[in-house]
Write a structure and sequence with these properties.
This protein is 0% helix and 51% strand. The chain is mainly beta and 212 residues long. An 8-stranded antiparallel sheet has the order 5-6-7-8-20-16-15-11, with no helix packed on it. Strands 10-18-17-14-12-13 form a 6-stranded antiparallel sheet, with no helix packed on it. The protein has a two-stranded antiparallel sheet with strand order 1-4. It is globular. The mean pLDDT is 96.
Length: 212
């Protein structure tokens, strides 16, 4: 997700006195950035990149680098600006609830200190509260340990990240999402990172797995 992660209220934000309108792709909001809807360029066997452009109003480039080992994968994402821009970045992993038709249902081990309260339209109000009971479509901070996704004795996946915020979505019967991101939804309207030339926004994510 880049150059913004999660929702932007009504697809609108202001930056340095100017107003901007993004496409409304999850009415009434914009969601998940722009690069997920566009083709990336393969730079080499470990790197992909994409130029930022319309409908995003600021020029720049997003680069992802992958490092794969037999039991882990590490991804580094960097957003490089050609002029100052507000931004947040992250990933949107989606996991099946069952690996096979007769397999065990997924279990998520997730422990966070705080949750961003959200309003009726799914946008954070700016207030932090204690986590509610599941199901969730919420953003959390103060995660005490790397989240673990487990399918019985078949597969265990641990997700680590440099990101401070995590969105967990488990309201559908077919899958769950565990999403590390550098800021909560609607950050463009609150306290986004300001990315400048020569000062990229960088995030990392690591998956570690065990089978059997």
């Amino acid at each position: 997700m880049a150059p913004f992660a999660g929702r932007v209220r009504d697809g609108q934000f202001r930056f340095r006195g100017e107003s901007f309108q993004l496409p409304i792709d999850l009415p009434p909001h914009a969601i998940h950035g722009t690069v997920y809807r566009q083709p990336w360029t393969i730079v080499d066997d470990a790197t992909i990149a994409i130029r930022l452009g319309d409908p995003w109003p600021f020029p720049g480039t997003v680069v992802q680098r992958f490092s794969l080992e037999p039991d882990s994968m590490r991804v580094t994402m960097s957003l490089r600006a050609e002029q100052p821009m507000p931004a947040s970045i992250g990933w949107h992993p989606w996991f099946r609830r069952r690996l096979t038709e007769s397999g065990d249902d997924v279990d998520l081990q997730f422990d966070a200190e705080l949750m961003f309260e959200r309003d009726a339209t799914g946008i954070p109000t700016g207030r932090l509260v204690g986590p509610t009971e599941r199901p969730w479509d919420d953003c959390f901070t103060g995660v005490r340990a790397d989240p673990v996704v487990r399918w019985g004795n078949d597969l265990e996946l641990t997700i680590g990240s440099s990101c401070d915020c995590w969105v967990v979505f488990d309201q559908r019967p077919d899958g769950i999402c565990v999403e590390p991101q550098t800021a909560p939804p609607d950050a463009l309207n609150h306290e986004p990172a300001i990315v400048e030339p020569g000062k990229p926004l960088i995030a990392t994510m690591e998956w570690r797995w065990k089978t059997g």
